[in-house]
Specification:
The complex is a heterotrimer of chains A (about 260), B (about 280) and C (about 375).
Chain A lengths: L1 H37 L18 H8 L1 H34 L5 H5 L4 H4 L2 H15 L5 H24 L5 H8 L4 H30 L4 H4 L7 H11 L3 H25 L1
Helix pairs in contact in A: 2-12, 3-7, 3-9, 7-9, 8-9, 9-12, 11-12
Chain B lengths: L11 H4 L4 H27 L9 H6 L2 H34 L4 H9 L6 H12 L4 H4 L10 H25 L3 H9 L4 H12 L1 H16 L3 H6 L7 H10 L4 H25 L2 H6 L2
Helix pairs in contact in B: 2-14, 4-8, 4-11, 8-11, 9-10, 13-14
Chain C lengths: L1 E10 L2 E11 L4 E5 L6 H9 L6 E6 L2 E2 L10 E4 L11 H11 L4 H14 L15 H13 L5 E5 L7 H18 L2 E6 L2 H7 L2 E6 L2 E6 L1 H6 L4 H6 L4 E10 L2 E5 L4 E3 L14 E6 L4 E5 L21 H6 L1 E11 L4 E7 L4 E6 L10 E6 L5 E2 L1
Parallel strand pairs in C: 3-8, 3-9, 6-7, 7-8
Antiparallel strand pairs in C: 1-2, 1-4, 4-5, 9-10, 11-12, 11-14, 12-13, 14-20, 15-19, 16-17, 16-19, 17-18
Classes of the chains: A mainly alpha (about 260), B mainly alpha (about 280), C alpha+beta (about 375).
Chain lengths: ~260, ~280, ~375
């Protein structure tokens, strides 16, 4: 009896330690974000946990700041447009790579993933210098094209993994039934893969919406994005407006990510 | 009721000319034109065509503060990878073998990936700052603007990237294998050491490579949580470009760093499959 | 109706279909039979226009359709995977082909209802495919392929996913439907039972090449070559050299000799030629070794063939040991290791009076020997 109970005690201690470590890891992952959100409701002039009651004054501040609202609009426009581009090009590549056979296919497909691997700082300066040469102006055009490059690997990976399970007999059946390739794509392929495309769109949206490092090189004075605004404000001093803006950013990104998950399943 | 299109909006002569290879060309072409070319163009930008040597910028880039920044990037990257792998392994092991709420707990690991890096670094900044929640209750952890803070930040940012591949590889192990090891007389720790770890090596390697690539190239971590002494290569490239406006030098630094990274990836790709590693994300 | 001439397909260096020609008459049910990887699906896809042939010609109703897209050929096709559109109802699936063939809304409704009834699913029009059983899905798939009255129906292993009982039921049903509509059909399968039970004509394919095209009976009883003989049905096999003794063809193996019938099965071969002999298990009798001497009073004889003549028994009688007895339900298959080294297969009554290890004599009629 005493032996088993000491074993049990030892295993309880071990389980307790493990549980502690796990709670710490999850706290480590999630507490920073929680703090940002929590301290946005402070009534003081610096980000503090609002023990003495919740205040929305920094959100009021936010919606009266035209520059920050402008940044929100820019982020929305850039994320939407660049995600559409990324879905178009990423899907084309994914379909092509899944269905075509040619030499060095695997190696060539690595090109689609490069923007994910190269440091975004390098991507940023490479793009802005190159855009100057090929006449893509900074601001919206540079941001949209640049973000489409930064997000296309995610679209490519996601759509490719979904296409592998697509039954090509469905397209053959449609052709034999009398539909040409375009009509087949519209009636059969598109409806079936559209959830995957929507999921990919929202993943791209999330990545674009939160991107800072490359973005800082691509903005123009009139077209700053939310992460760039947050960074600039961080450099000049901590005010709870940053928290309010960050919280808005978190909400947008989480909603987009949840939409993506919804369509992926 | 689904809508059915009867007539093609695109003329047949056009669609008959578009094959799957064209689709590949369209996708790869976009990335080539707006990514591969710009990166290659940096090589041109890094060369000195004026007076002095062609590789002047490279001479500067491989000396003094830049060499330090390179070294720091790889040291921080390495330490971050080790720390992250340790935490990620414990977490993934628990999720696979001990938890009944895998879905929820796994989602909680993924949630930080949905949130911009800048916000997570900002959260850590608040956490450690004297006026932050810890400072408010009189507790002060004075690590801000040190190497520790930067590594903690990097580990925080990239931990989810490490958990997913390890989780996938552990999840692929048949539980019978572990039962068999226990039945054959190996203890729990011995089983982990002799059976589980070797079988999950592909996941560990994938996680390590992803974290290392991302961490060494990080800009925001040192920018938000570090001081001038913690400047990594990405920060030096950005500073040289944005503040010193020395495009040649910034390009040279970028080229050196990219070559090192590509060499690292090529070496890795010779042994493991990079695409498979990235497919875990 | 369908005429295929010299159809050839290379995948890079790999020759998948090698110069295959055949034709199908109006209203016939023809089967392409072959093992997996023999090129039969590629052949079917070329006929459908889903793959471009490297060489050769496909003619439908006398018209050359080789270069036409699949949507311009007016063919119907059923797939092993059913390939029903998962996002459409059964009705919409069937209406799809009608739509593409220019039927107006009213015609579509009548035609869809008619075909739903024809495939015994009159009330399932508004279901989605995933709400139906495997057999029902395959029936919808056939209704979809037939509703717009195609010139020819192509069937790509439509019964392969189904379990045994359902498969036999579907075979019956498919045959009835095909005869009723009189639609010319080309059926692709690796299953010899499908092929032998349903077809007017069977085309055996192996390694991209046509091996034999003939009626099911002829394929089974007079296989054109070794491949057809071994792929379709089981046999006892002897390899030897053809000789003529007293004007009767004899095949000598290393250990023994076999008398071969004087029918056309041996006439294609010359004296001294190396040949293979095949005897179907239902043509083989097996009796306990002692029983042969007293003229067969014991009732252990085989099922299929009539009592062998005295001459034949003497001629083709081989001693051996019973190796295996497998009860196959309606009959029993006995495997005998012959002293001459070959393995003989015989079908007997359900409960033969022999056991594993028994010494037996195997006999067969010289007329039932197939020489290839």
């Amino acid at each position: 009896m005493s032996v088993t109970s000491s074993i049990r005690r030892a295993s309880l201690v071990r389980q307790g330690t493990l549980l502690c470590i796990l709670v710490c890891i999850y706290a480590f992952l999630l507490v920073p974000v929680a703090i940002v959100i929590l301290t946005s409701f402070t009534g003081q002039s610096f980000p503090a946990v609002p023990y003495d009651g919740i205040s929305f004054q920094w959100y009021t501040e936010l919606i009266t700041d035209s520059q920050l609202l402008g940044a929100l609009v820019t982020s929305f426009v850039v994320a939407t447009a660049s995600s559409l581009l990324a879905v178009a090009f990423g899907t084309a590549a994914a379909v092509g790579f899944v269905r075509a056979e040619f030499p060095y296919k695997q190696q060539l497909s690595t090109i689609m993933l490069l923007p994910m691997i190269i440091s975004p700082v390098i991507t940023g300066i490479a793009l802005i210098r190159y855009f100057g040469m090929v006449d893509v102006s900074s601001g919206y055009p540079a941001l949209i094209v640049g973000h489409s490059i930064l997000t296309v690997p995610y679209v490519f990976l996601l759509v490719r993994s979904q296409l592998v399970t697509f039954d090509e007999d469905l397209e053959k059946a449609s052709r034999v039934l009398g539909a040409d390739s375009t009509v087949t794509f519209l009636n059969v392929t598109a409806p079936i893969i559209s959830p995957a495309l929507l999921a990919a769109f929202f993943v791209a949206f999330v990545v674009s919406f939160g991107e800072f490092t490359a973005t800082q090189f691509l903005i123009s004075p009139g077209s700053s994005t939310v992460p760039v605004e947050i960074y600039t404000m961080l450099r000049t001093g901590l005010t709870p407006t940053i928290n309010a803006l960050s919280t808005v950013l978190v909400v947008v990104m989480v909603v987009a990510a949840l939409l993506s998950r919804y369509f992926e399943n | 009721m689904s809508v059915v299109v009867e007539r093609s909006p695109v003329p047949r002569w056009l669609t008959e000319r578009i094959s799957n290879r064209h689709l590949v060309a369209i996708g790869v072409g976009w990335v080539t034109f707006f990514f591969v070319f710009p990166i290659l163009f940096l090589v041109v930008e890094s060369l000195n065509f004026g007076s002095g040597g062609l590789f002047d910028a490279y001479r500067r880039a491989t000396g003094g503060v830049y060499l330090n920044a390179f070294a720091r990037s790889f040291v921080y990257g390495f330490v971050t990878t080790v720390v992250t792998l340790a935490f990620a392994y414990v977490l993934a092991y628990y999720l696979v073998f001990a938890s009944d709420r895998v879905r929820l707990l796994l989602t909680l690991v993924v949630v930080p990936l949905w949130i911009a890096y800048i916000i997570r670094y900002f959260g850590l900044l608040l956490f450690f700052s004297p006026t932050g929640p810890l400072g408010q209750v009189g507790l002060e952890i004075d690590i801000l603007f040190t190497s520790t803070a930067v590594v903690v930040g990097l580990a925080n940012a990239y931990l989810p990237f490490a958990v997913l591949p390890i989780y996938n590889s552990l999840n692929a192990i048949h539980h019978e294998t572990i039962d068999a090891s226990r039945a054959l007389g190996a203890g729990q720790l011995r089983t982990i050491y002799e059976v589980v770890v070797p079988l999950s090596t592909p996941g560990i390697v994938a996680a390590g490579v992803i974290v290392f690539i991302l961490a060494t190239g990080s800009f925001l971590g040192p920018a938000v949580l570090g001081g001038p002494e913690q400047s990594m290569i990405a920060n030096e490239i950005a500073r040289t470009f944005l503040e010193a406006y020395n495009i040649q030098l910034a390009s040279a630094l970028a080229v050196i760093y990219t070559v090192l990274l590509v060499a690292f990836i090529a070496a890795f790709n010779a042994v493991f499959d990079l695409q498979e590693a990235l497919g875990n994300l | 109706m369908l005429e295929v001439t010299g159809l050839t397909k290379y995948y890079g260096e790999l020759l998948a279909v090698d110069d295959v020609s055949f034709h199908i008459d109006e209203g016939d049910f023809v089967t392409l039979l072959g093992p997996s990887g023999c090129g039969k699906t590629t052949l079917l896809h070329m006929i459908a226009g889903l793959r471009e042939p490297t060489e050769g010609q496909v003619k439908l109703r006398g018209e050359d359709v080789t270069d036409l897209a699949p949507e311009d050929r007016n063919i119907g096709m059923a797939f092993q995977s059913t390939a029903l559109f998962p996002h459409m109802t059964v009705r919409e699936n069937i209406a799809y082909g009608l739509r593409m063939h220019g039927y107006d809304a009213e015609e579509r409704d009548t035609q869809v209802q008619e075909f739903l009834e024809l495939v015994d699913l009159p009330d399932h029009g508004d279901h989605h495919p995933d709400e139906l059983s495997g057999g029902q899905q395959q029936r919808v798939s056939l209704a979809r392929a037939l509703a717009y009255e195609p010139d020819i129906l192509l069937l790509d292993e439509p019964l392969t996913g189904l379990d045994r009982v359902l498969r036999e039921e579907m075979r019956e049903w498919l045959m009835t439907l095909q005869r009723e509509l009189g639609v010319t059909s080309l059926y692709v399968t690796h299953d010899q039972e499908d092929a032998l039970s349903m077809s007017d004509k069977v085309i055996v394919l192996d390694d991209g090449q046509k091996q034999q095209a003939a009626s099911p009976e002829r394929i089974y009883e007079q296989p054109a070559n070794e491949f057809v003989a071994t792929f379709v049905g089981k046999s006892t096999r002897f390899d030897g050299t053809l000789r003529s003794v007293d004007d009767r063809p004899i095949v000598e193996t290393d250990e023994t000799r076999i008398v071969v019938g004087t029918n056309d099965r041996a006439t294609n071969h010359d004296d001294g030629e190396a040949v293979s002999l095949f005897v179907r298990p239902e043509d083989v009798d097996v009796e306990p070794a002692t029983a042969t001497a007293d003229g067969g009073t014991t009732t252990t004889a085989g099922a299929a063939s009539a009592a062998p003549t005295a001459a034949a028994t003497v001629e083709n009688a081989f001693p051996g040991t019973v190796e295996k007895i497998a009860n196959l339900g309606n009959r029993t298959e006995v495997t005998v290791a012959l002293e001459s080294g070959e393995t003989a297969l015989a079908n007997t009554a359900r409960f033969p009076n022999i056991a594993v290890g028994d010494e037996v004599t195997v006999t067969f009629d010289s007329e039932s020997v197939v020489v290839v």
